[in-house]
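FW: tagging you since you asked about this chain on Friday. Here's the raw sequence from the shared folder, copied in full. Didn't touch anything.
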Amino acid sequence: MSETKSPEKTGEQIFVENADECLSIIEKRAQELEITGAGMIAFVPGTETTTWVSKMKVMGRITDGNLNFCGVIYSKAAEMAITLKDSGNESRKDIIGELGWQGGVIIKVKSGYLLGAFSGGSGEQDVESARKGLEWLAQKYQ
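HL: got it, structure written out here
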């Protein structure tokens, strides 16, 4: 009897299967840092951004009354989608729609890119929260 090798999962399948746990890890790190806000993760297949699949979660609050955290995380993600670098690139401050804020992390995986962003703390806290979950998720692509 021959053994059938199961097909390898796509990057999008891996993302969908692990998105909720990744967001929970980001939220847990934010709680440890005593911050609240919103977080998102995304998977970009391939070598350039032409599409992505993403998931967002409110992690305590979506706004502080003056700042829409959901809007901020997607601005950070939009910057990373173009630059393929962490958000907060000082040279891009004049690009409409990009805020140039820290808090977005991007990791190259074998089938594309993972993006993660948090908004609600300082730039450094946002990066630390997003990175914690994204590094865990990146291991699923090895």
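FW: The two ends are 30 Å apart (CA to CA).
HL: agreed, and DSSP finds three helices and four strands in the chain.
FW: great, closing this out.
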